Amino acid sequence: MPKVFITRAIPENGIELLREHFQVEVWDSEHEIPREVLLQKVREVDALVTMLSERIDKEIFDAAPKLRIVANYAVGYDNIDVEEATRRGIYVTNTPDVLTDATADFAWTLLLATARRLIEADRFTRSGEWKREGIAWHPLMLLGYDVYGKTIGIVGFGRIGQAVAKRARGFGMRILYYSRGRKPEVEKELGAEFRPLDELLRESDFVVLAVPLTKETYRMIGERELKLMRKTAILVNIARGKVVDTEALVKALKEGWIAGAGLDVYEEEPYYNEELFSFDNVVLAPHIGSATYGAREGMAELVARNLIAFKNGEVPPTLVNKEVVKVRKPGFE
């Protein structure tokens, strides 16, 4: 049987599927695998299941002469040198679709929690401060921002961006979007309007980032872009942390260029930024956009099905580097 190494424990449904077709080894620590250990583990493996936290590059490929496929347990794959993998005939897969709804739901969790100051309210109540102040209700207590009927601007209009838009319809919102190209059919279906990025930032009450991390999207939201936003606007990032210039965001929050932010991703992870994390108008989460039982089990199953298809000489269902089939046929022979 071919050998597969999994760099973190994934839901058991995926591992059970793989054990029927592979010799499976799992790094069972909660902490990410040290680089030197990963370099050792890949020496004899035919397949590798990776997380976003692992950098899969030329050094890894050099250490893994038998490696034929890398299955990334994520929809994004900016942690993998896909070009180098393709050159070597190594297949790369990801896990789209199965986490779309969970991630879109979480964008809305951040949006609503930030707009209505939920974390502040929870802290105020839980700490006993509400009781100590002795004020049961006040017309100006913890005022937030309306959501229903407002304008949402979605930057990146792929699967997740469109799922965010579908939910916005239930809130009676005007939907703006920016992407590399217009999508007329989706515009018609969702009642969405295309805008250049600058216009979207100027017009939106809520800006949701849902783009992949590429050379073009790296720090696409910086000081100039934040200054274009409304002072009452809220920024939500469920994309990648490096899409936003963190220093510029801190400055925007400190100087009141925007009203708040909801963040699930950061420039480095795990992450701590004392100044950013001190703002009451920022809602923070540790990259848990897809963290539902259903989504994570769906991701595990898709990882397994990609590897099993490859083993059977079939093109994996969610192959990222489709041109690799010209370099090497699927399969371990």
Automatic annotation (TrEMBL):
InterPro entries: D-isomer_2-hydroxyacid_DH (IPR050223), D-isomer_2_OHA_DH_cat_dom (IPR006139), D-isomer_DH_CS (IPR029753), D-isomer_DH_CS1 (IPR029752), D-isomer_DH_NAD-bd (IPR006140), Glyoxylate_reductase_GyaR (IPR023519), NAD(P)-bd_dom_sf (IPR036291). Belongs to the D-isomer specific 2-hydroxyacid dehydrogenase family. GyaR subfamily. It comes from Thermococcus camini. The active site is at 240, 269, 287 (proton donor). It catalyses: glycolate + NAD(+) = glyoxylate + NADH + H(+). The lineage of its organism: Archaea, Methanobacteriati, Methanobacteriota, Thermococci, Thermococcales. Gene3D superfamilies: NAD(P)-binding Rossmann-like Domain. NCBIfam families: PRK13243.1. The keyword NAD applies. SUPFAM superfamilies: Formate/glycerate dehydrogenase catalytic domain-like, NAD(P)-binding Rossmann-fold domains. It is an enzyme of class 1 (oxidoreductase). This is Glyoxylate reductase. Keywords: Cytoplasm, NAD, Oxidoreductase. Its main location: cytoplasm. It comes from the Archaea. One of its GO terms (molecular function) is hydroxypyruvate reductase [NAD(P)H] activity. The keyword Transmembrane helix does not apply. NADP(+) binds at residues 157-160, 238-240, 287-289. Residues 4-321 form the D-isomer specific 2-hydroxyacid dehydrogenase catalytic domain. Its EC number is 1.1.1.26. PANTHER family: 2-HYDROXYACID DEHYDROGENASE-RELATED, GLYOXYLATE_HYDROXYPYRUVATE REDUCTASE B. Homodimer. GO terms for cellular component: cytosol.
